């Protein structure tokens, strides 16, 4: 992995950004609640809280799976596994799909379901993954 130190560093950066993207929504519950309230003004506090909780569970699950993917790929890269780059590419595609969904999927109100700031946070790990895959060199 000595040839791919930059890629490995980017894998760890991606893991950190994934953790950040999974944890920030918990710290900004009010942003998420405000977004839901704007889309559904007739919702009571209980319904808004339930929707916020559902989004937090979804984002935490995606974050945990993403973190496992980053750390597993970093382990494989450090261990010199030939399949590590292919795994990184596959996980990048999966992460990009999650990010695109977070930014574009509309709910029944007609607005995007996730607050845009939180949706854009899902893109940050993808940028690190794209850079890691781009810098990754095949073994000699």
List keywords for this structure.
single chain, 140 residues, mainly alpha, 6 helices, 77% helix, elongated
Short synopsis of the structure:
With 140 residues, this protein is mainly α.
Account of the 3D structure:
The structure is a single chain. Helix 4 (84-104) runs antiparallel to helix 6. 77% of the residues lie in helices and 0% in strands. It is elongated and about 60 Å long. It has six helices and no strands. The protein is mainly α and 140 residues long.
Q: From the helix content, strand content and strand pairing, which structural class follows?
A: mainly alpha
* β-strand number: 0
Summarize model confidence as the mean pLDDT.
Answer: 93
Please estimate the helix content.
over 70%
Q: How far apart are the first and last residues' alpha carbons, in Å?
A: 11 Å
Coarse shape: elongated
- What's the tally of helices? 6
| Residue fraction in strands | under 5%
Compute the gyration radius: what is it? 17 Å
Unreliable stretches: none
- N-to-C SSE series? HHHHHH
As an assembly, this protein is single chain
Biggest beta-sheet profile: none
